[in-house]
Amino acid sequence: MMTTKAPAPAAGPATGPAGAAESRRNPRRRARRRGRVIAAAFVLPALLLLGALVVYPVLFSVGRSFFDAGGTRFVGGGNYAEMFRDPATLKAVRNSAIWVVVAPTLLTGLGLILAVLVEKVRWATAFKLLLFMPMAVSFLAAGIIFRLAYEEDPDKGVLNAAVVGVHDAVEGSSPYPTARARDGQGLTRGPDGSYSTSDTTSPGGRTLTLGLVGVAPKELPAGAAHARPAAGLSAGPGELLGVVYLDFAPGGGGKQGAVDAEESGLPEMTVEAVHDGRPVATATTASDGSFRFPGLTAGSYTVRLPAQNFAPPYEGVSWLGPALVTPAIIGAYLWIWTGFAMVLIGAGLSALPRDTLEAARMDGANEWQVFRRITVPLLAPILTVVFVTLVINVMKVFDLVYIIAPGPVQEDATVLATQMWLVSFGGGNNQGLGSALGVLLLLLVIPAMVFNVRRFRRSQS
Fold first, then answer.
1. CA–CA distance, 459 with 325 (Å, rounded to integer)
2. What's the whole-model pTM score?
3. How far apart are CA 406 and CA 412, in angstroms?
4. Is the pLDDT of residue 407 over 60?
């Protein structure tokens, strides 16, 4: 019996489990493609801006660093060789190294200490707000503030006003820094700035009149009285008498070298009696300028007004001088960024497991041991992030150095960023060398950036 074979079904859409799975995958693939296109559309403007504002300037600077100042002649690595032969550039590298070592270390340490201490006070929020407020001040404004604060004139610079006030309170100041002897009036100026009588005198002899000028009447001490004439003084046996006075009468008149009625005595003046080249007695003038040396032995004496009476006033510290300009600018940087470090470390501190800290205290650890052996190790990741972030930041510092450092010491305070600007636009007009400095700065920053990015990725995994 013969059977016939049924014809095979015509080809059509896939059926069964495999076909169903394929039909489900196709919409997913289309959705993924559509998502990629949408994401690319959103990212494209940012990529264009990144390329125009970051990538292109970097590539252009790298290429420009191989040409001369005019940009017409290829010099290869000549700019890089010149960069390390230039004393100003080497000083900039040295100052940048000081910044990288000192500023992030101090800021991280200060931020850690303040974050730990603030946790133990009730007004922590207000304290954090006050310390973080300088972050809202631009570097330009902060530079102007500290340029004024560091002024050497105590009448303008607040820091020197405080230093001079403390110095004068502890050591005192010379009473008559501008006083001087009138020529031909019997006083000779010594090499140390003191004044001595030209002629010698003996105890019980004539009364000495020592006239000075150069003191404005308004600068006299409050207790100054009219000078006592020599006729009003009488020397006893073994006594040496005299008067130190201002040989000038307001309104003019009077006789030079003689005590007139309107002339003022100079009180609080130190006077020495000198015998055989050494001082044997010391006295201080009274309100009328008179002085007395009792109990002197017979002999010849000269009277000396020591240099301490005429020493110039203490002017304070030269904060912006060549020796201190870099530490002074770092101090301004600390004022701005301490709040940043404290807030970041404080956030990490608030996330620490409190049971671990309490367990250590219950085991007998004191606060220093808890801080050193538990708090700091647990905060090590956040401390590293803060430190590396600050390293990147200080390597690019420009505003504070350029604004605070005066022109004469600009070279002593220069860092790589300011040196790059000065060489390129600040008078050097050598964009080839400036571009080489920019490339060097980029190469120094990249390792810190890579380290930070890798650490961030590890913390996210």
1. 39
2. 0.74
3. 10
4. yes
